[in-house]
Fold:
Amino acid sequence: MAPVTTGVILAGGKNIRFGGITKANVVIEGETIISRILRVFRGLFDEIIIVTNNPEEFRSIRNVRLVEDIIRGAGPLGGIHAALKSSKSEAIFVIAGDMPFPDRRIIEDQMGRFSAANHDILTVKIGNLVEPLHSVFSKKIFDDLETFLEQQGRRTVRDFLEESDTAYFDIPDTEEARKAFRNINFPDEV
Structure:
């Protein structure tokens, strides 16, 4: 498999449970979630893409590409689709823009495992918990993803993973690992 050289932050969504505030811009311990992710991404990836349908919120961030959904209303899969289409590399690492504690070591291990494997998608699993928005996607899935988005009534990442050549990267269930995959859905979780 080709090395993963593009990091993608999914910073779209309607953020309904968060009162319409873009979760990637929420401040946790004095730093926005997106800044925390970018700090981990810099040095790991040659290309960083932020997928958002509100690019004006991120224009001040340097050395990133801002990409909008091509297929609107498709949720995270629409963001993955847009990132795959615009990426310069053969595989992308994707993280949700509401995960404030990314772990560089886990990401490096996951990318290494993907590069050594022969699967189209590698997603994280802690015990029985699958985290589909901490995954590596090969560009080879692009046509299948586009067909899935255009023809299916359901559009969840989990559904697409089940229909694809997906491998799972098992992570020990530790507090450190759980922290790395924690996401923020409601204001009181901040």
